[in-house]
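Forwarding the complex inputs:
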Amino acid sequence: MYRAPASDYDFLLRYVIDGAGILKATTDDEVTLDDVTDVLGHAGTLAADLLAPLNAPGDRVGSKLENDGVTTPPGFTEAYKTFAEGGWTSLGVPASIGGGGMPRIVANAAGEFWSAANTAFSLCPGLSQGAIAACHAHARDELRQTYVPPLVSGRWTGTMNLTEPQAGTDLAAIRTSAQALDDGAWSITGQKIFITWGDHDLAENIVHLVLARTPDAPTGLGGLSLFLVPKYLPDPDGRPGERNRVQTVSLEHKLGIHASPTCVLDYENATGFLVGQQNQGLAAMFVMMNQARLGIAVQGIGLADRAYQQAHAYAAERVQGRVTGRPAGTPIAEHPDVRRLLLSMSSAISAMRGLSTQVSAWIDRANTGHAEAHDADLVEFFVPIIKGWASEACVQITSDAVQVHGGMGFIEETGAAQYYRDARILPIYEGTTAIQANDLLGRKLLRDNGATAETALALIEASVATARAAEHPVAHRLADRLAAAVEAVRHSTRTILARADSPRDAFAGGVSYLQQWGLLAGGWMHARMLVAALGAAEDSASPRRIREADGFATAHLSQVHSLGESITAGEIA
Amino acid sequence: MYRAPASDYDFLLRYVIDGAGILKATTDDEVTLDDVTDVLGHAGTLAADLLAPLNAPGDRVGSKLENDGVTTPPGFTEAYKTFAEGGWTSLGVPASIGGGGMPRIVANAAGEFWSAANTAFSLCPGLSQGAIAACHAHARDELRQTYVPPLVSGRWTGTMNLTEPQAGTDLAAIRTSAQALDDGAWSITGQKIFITWGDHDLAENIVHLVLARTPDAPTGLGGLSLFLVPKYLPDPDGRPGERNRVQTVSLEHKLGIHASPTCVLDYENATGFLVGQQNQGLAAMFVMMNQARLGIAVQGIGLADRAYQQAHAYAAERVQGRVTGRPAGTPIAEHPDVRRLLLSMSSAISAMRGLSTQVSAWIDRANTGHAEAHDADLVEFFVPIIKGWASEACVQITSDAVQVHGGMGFIEETGAAQYYRDARILPIYEGTTAIQANDLLGRKLLRDNGATAETALALIEASVATARAAEHPVAHRLADRLAAAVEAVRHSTRTILARADSPRDAFAGGVSYLQQWGLLAGGWMHARMLVAALGAAEDSASPRRIREADGFATAHLSQVHSLGESITAGEIA
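Prediction (whole assembly, two chains):
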């Protein structure tokens, strides 16, 4: 049983983040908050009724490579058809190119529901978003007209082809080659690995976006070009025609997300089309990167919530022994330690959900004429933070969910183990946590000498003042702890900035610094949610929000101080 | 490739813990430290050469229930035969009953090697230890003479039968019944679940120790009796004879330890024999409990070390991109964050290994006439701490090992994923972490009003003074941090003791308090290991020990302070 947290998004968009203002700016008042409530209500129902029941059987059966390609588990093709026909593959794609036209704050919420319901399934439409964005932004007109509409409608799906055996984190080592053909097309040859949904039977065509090198291209990252390589070459009417020379060699046997086929793809003189300029492939690919990284954070939130919901339901039913200070027959959910664990989980989930919505709001604002100067900088700064923080937290929360089940958690049929297995990929793909930390330090913090960090700290300090002014002891306690955490992070920021001359010391503290920011931003969101809950008379969930704010500060925010020691220490010689 | 850390145990027993004194007291000088070096060298070789290669295939094939019982994966029966013939099943069993006669400090070390090499396999001889101990301590002579020798020689193996579907943590809910028969034996009927190695083909007989209720027994824990129920009833010559009425109904489909069969056992008028007094079953079972719980901690250390060794080897080989401040071609082990992760892992493993050896030493001393007054109390106090701390840390370390592998970590063939899956049972079986914390608070801390806690803090303070006197900056830094951690734990202790009237507040902080103690004791062991390493001219590993001491204090010991907030907060209303 999965229940989508649509009402939490309602709360965030109505009382915490200026949802109405963003809808006005992004849709010109054509979409109202009531419309969003309606859309998310439908999305939640679809996630719960259509996708969630396929999650456990999808794990058991897995996707399989057979003679004519990859076969997905029973029910997946039908579910994808319903999903695409409902327009859900392109909820956040601009209406001007046939999408649902919803801003990121809405698509982000729906994305959480899909991931929670069925992480493996959700990756497929998720990757199409990236392909649409890259084609729309960089492909020449003719390509765009052929490829974007079927990707938007979901009739075709997209993939990202970066990794090769020798080129994972280090894309400079990519060897796949592209030779120009007479007709303006290119011949692509090479092997790509870890290609998620690289082949399947859900859609009539698959559009691979492939990083490769043209002859005489410079070595390194500046010699990569982006190519579009369809599984079937479109005929003159744009329908899938001749089979292209890309083959699925094998599927990986993975720890989790078994229903999502992870392919080794062989390109042997496959026909491809250049997207964007030659040697500018990385820039075109990076159009997808922020979106994809925030997407992983949202997967983490969804999967964590799914695991939490199951643990909570189990604990509320299971009776085992006498619970301290409670009558006989009280379920284990009332044991002090089970209660602590459940609160640790739910308070982290609410914090991450708040932050992902805030980052989405900055993205939406940055894309309009109403942006404040720092919106885009805050997006760049917080995307690696939320990707790293939420993906690592998801691993912990799914582990906690196993623990709440006791011995039953270790039995596969219970389902908790699947979430734990599925979660483990999140801190790895789209850049490991260390890569996110390198991005945060190297490309964000050091580049503007801490200016964006200080902007964010000032925003948080404003919320400290608001929380302090609220009439509630939890708000006051949270304000004090948040103020202390701001100082700890400010100190870390200065420490790292002062290490321009000893980069190994700076980077040794990178992941701890990223974690500090995640926790601090989570505390910030709780402060804002708490103040909103205390002010919103009709918020029936306010007792929960007060508990979560207090629980988050106690169990999570307090960690910023011990993390500070790793940052101060630098590299241990 | 697994390499047993025999030299680390050599170091601990020669320079940190008074191994020579314990050998003198427990074996009357018959075993020397050189003998121990020899034994552990052989154990390490056997673990690496015989058991480790069966670990991955054991996971893939798993144990299977077939018509005539459980079949173990290829190679397991032959390996068990070699293992038993070498006397390794009873290394720590008293020589007076045919065992190897080694004290716990030695058996503990070998136990780590077996667990690291093949966790699933190691559970089988591990359970026999418990059966030997219970029979030896409580069974009447005739039973003892029949059952103990084949258990000691490893021809037969033992199991523990506690759990039923409605009776997991709460053993008071056990329903399995025992009816007296005319000949002094009993007829046992009921269903037991989660029975590790409950059936298999490694040995010629299996001896189940079963908790059940006699007619008119009191309800609750005081109405449980312990019965010995063999799979095959011994014939007059003591050889396995008639098949007893105990059947394996099914095996659990688990997240990990696939080679270890987890059985549902049906007893239907099976013949059993009372062990100890009627209604005293729990006391007899608890003979095994401390030993079993320390055993789980040791499993955690072994499995963590196996995962660490693999991650370290991978990182030392894998070249990927340019490493900050290092020449091209430097492997990822030199990336600041990979180095941080590896140090976090190895420093925790060394700390846990030190503490498990210290606890073993207290056990050994408590069993001799040379015990100090507090040895037995310290055992009781630290067993739940190390079980909870090391099992949770093992989950984190095996997760870190996946992370070091990047995308390859998520692929099952790599092996890192197996350790991550296997590890997840450790914080659950033999009592979840919350149960360990309840034990620490309810049966240890509150019962002696903090006396043993204060004894332990005083021991640690003595090591603070020694570290401060050493001439090394890392020792001074560690001494300062350890002193601060002692104060934090002392504060927590007082907070919990002051809550006799609000037990829910006390128990809400239980797991955090247990974790504080684990971290503090780990820091204590590092201080002692560091001082020993600085003083032992011939310790070639001393640079590593210095780094680990510094790394543990930075990354782990610092967490005692944030954990303190959860203890102070009590239950969040």
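Chain A touches chain B through 69 residues (CB under 8 Å).
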